[in-house]
Amino acid sequence: MVELSALFHGFAVVLTPFNLLLMMIGIVLGVIIGVLPGLGGANGVAILLPLTFTMPPTSAIIMLSCIYWGALFGGAITSILFNIPGEPWSVATTFDGYPMAQQGRAGEALTAAFTSSFVGAFVAVVMITFLAPLVAQFALQFGPPEFFAVYLLTFCSFIGMGKGSPWKTLAAMMLGFALAAVGMDTVTGQLRLIFGFTELMRGFDFLIAVIGLFGIGEILLSMEEGLKFTGKSAKINPKVVFETWAKLPKYWMTLLRSCAIGCWMGITPGGATPASFMSYGVAKRMSPDGAKFGTGQLEGVVAPETGAHAAGTSALLPMLALGIPGSPTAAVLLGGLLIWGLQPGPLLFTEQKDFVWGLIASMYLGNIAGLLIVLTCVPLFAAILRIPFSIIAPIIIVICAIGAYTVHNAMLDIWLMLLFGVVGYVFKKLDYPLAPLVLALVLGDRAEDSFRQSMLISQGNMRVFFSNWLVGGITALALLLLFWPLLGRGFARVRRGRTPVSEPVE
Amino acid sequence: MDDKEAWIGRDRAGVSTRTMEIAVALVLFVIGAIVIFDSYRLGSKWGSDGPQSGYFPFYIGLLICISSAVTAAQAMFGKSGAGKPFVTWGPFKRVLTVLLPAVLYVLSVKFVGLYIASAIYIAIFMVWLGKYPWWKGVVVGLVINVIFFLMFEVWFKVPLFKGEWNPLGFLGY
User: What per-residue confidence (pLDDT) applies to A1?
Assistant: First the structure.
């Protein structure tokens, strides 16, 4: 029960008026970011990151992680009321959420979405509380080969678990690695891939990439679709809330299942989006009302929201315990750690107790505060969406430009942001996944370092990745995940009769 | 009016998804080749004291080339996306109405700085695309940038770019 006393210490860290205020600001900003098209968890946090440079790290991470919780909640509002997913992970919520709103049951759908999000997040936080310290302690024995094997696992699971073409995932990921290699090589001091442009010496900052790919790219996509926001009105009163809460325990099995799917998908970097689709798909198959899914079933809102929130939250576990983010937003938070002068990785748990347990405690409080805020302020947030797109779009572009500039105070970064925006638009249209690109850009240098160190240990022999049971096991698991689609097809051929259920791609 | 535009646009479909797939794969292939070339130049082998600078990126470049070649081949010989347009002219025009002003906006930031360029950009965007009366655009642009100015310069003390001509220099920030 060392964890519990550490957790209470964490609560003591968080419960200062300043931190609580930041928490509230974070949640409200997060919901607004989640509601607006073009601003999401990852780029919202990236844009606001420079504002926190002067804060103490613990306060900064509390505010930024609360923005993330808020964004997770906010995505559901637009899905249910406007049939427009504010975030990719709330696409599955539109399937049953919007029909419910059309039938005048918007309040019920929103309450169910928020509450099940809360449950998903809560289960994930409990898991983080008890599992993360163990993982961190275990990881203290890791040397460079083990770390490289874990990186390999992260990237292989993207290729194996991804829904689209594995070759496109590989290409996007390797593009991320190539961009990460640009600039000074930290080991030999040589300049790589800059071809005489001295401005590129710093390399490509992933924050710029995140703002461009997710922010500008999204605006261009929304513009192409010619969005017109025509939403249902949001009426939530205490009566609806309590009535819905009374119905929810009936779906305990769905909740539990979606939590499990979400936690698994969050830790292995599947992310919130596939977790929500998978939860929806499984619930549809398992539920007695499965055939009625898509016509406004409460269960069809509960399942994807629980899964998405559980995944979004548990993506922070590998970030805290190993220094390997499980999602683009976790990657941005990790970038924050480096900027605030903290070294991410297993040592964080022993050297920065205040920080880690403060963050974990703020996850509990932030989700409770988030639930209360969204339940009480839905009409207010929905009103933001009624502001016409021709006002919102230029403001978001301006915010992205300011965010890109403040990262390094460099004019070139704003141009790069625009370029990444066009790349994001084209990649999204052609189904190239963006998350592996961002993660590779973040982890590129460290993956390369651990690879080189491993090679130095073994004098260039690849067998170092199978030299003992630990590193061998991780590498084997990585290869297993990499070839999972092929194996899965093999299994399906053996067990004929059951047709594989195809799920929509992000 | 938008519907009508989209209707006309369907006749004048621009690039097909297949062409775009192949073009993007080609660009990626060239990027991969550049990475391989530069890694080779830096030395992608084993130096006297361990792996050289190009050791790791060499394989990255190789994987980019392989994966983009496969994607291009799939697009060329596969059936999917053959007739599907990547984007029709109508929607693409809407994309350009955002993208081109954004390029001009970034260009103007260089001279007049973020605040003034942003105010002008928001105002023009609202009046031109949103068909708002001009005074509404000006008010929204000004109010938003005054808020940004207070937030960044005064409260958070994060100075933003004020441009080469520095038209806001008289404020003393």
Answer: 66
> Is-contact B77 B22, C-beta < 8 A?
no
Q: Which residues of A159-183 are buried (b: 16+ CB within 10 A; e: fewer)?
A: bbbbbebbbbbbbbbbbbbbbbbbb
Q: Are B100 and B64 in contact (CB under 8 A)?
A: no
Global ipTM: 0.89
Residue A323 has what pLDDT? 85
pLDDT at B62: 95
Nearest to B158 by CA among A414, A417, A52, A335: A52
A104: phi then psi, degrees, rounded to nearest 5: 80, 15
Using CA of residue A382, residue A388, residue A390, residue A395, what is the dihedral sign? negative
Question: How far is it, in rounded angstroms, from Cα A13 to Cα A11?
Answer: 5
Question: Which residues from chain A sit within 8 angstroms of residue B46, using beta carbons?
Answer: 460
- Tell if the CB–CB gap between B53 and A406 is shorter than 8 Å: no
Strands, E assignment, chain B: 46-47, 50-51
Please state, in angstroms and rounded to a whole number, the distance separating the CA atoms of residues A68 and A271. 14
Listing DSSP states for A89-117 in one string gives GGHHHHHHHHHHHHTT-HHHHHHHHHHHH
Low-confidence ranges of chain A (pLDDT < 50): 498-506
Query: What CA–CA distance (Å, rounded) separates A499 from B104?
Result: 53
pLDDT at B10: 46
State the smallest CA–CA distance between residue B171 and chain A in angstroms: 19
CA–CA distance, A169 with A162 (Å, rounded to integer): 8
Residue B85 is classified by DSSP as: B
Summarised one tens digit per residue, pLDDT across range A99-132 is 888 888 888 888 999 999 999 999 999 999 999 8
Residues B35-87: tens digit of each pLDDT: 999 998 888 787 777 788 888 899 999 999 999 999 999 888 876 655 677 88
Question: d(Cα A215, Cα A420) in Å, to the nearest integer?
Answer: 9
Most A CBs within 10 A among B95, B96, B100, hence the mutation to make, goes to B95
**Above pLDDT 70, what percent of chain B?**
88
Alpha carbons A104 and A98: distance in angstroms, whole number: 10
CB contact under 8 A, B118 and A401: yes
Token couple for A265: 């998908």
**Average pLDDT for B155-168:** 82
- Any idea what DSSP says for residue A250? G
Q: Rounded to an integer, what distance in angstroms lies between the CA atom of residue A113 and that of residue A120?
A: 10
Q: CB–CB of B161 and A391 under 8 A?
A: no
Q: What is the pTM of this model?
A: 0.85
Task: Please report where in the chains the tokens 């080749």 appear, as a residue.
Answer: B33
Summarised one tens digit per residue, pLDDT across range A216-249 is 988 888 888 776 656 666 667 788 888 888 888 8
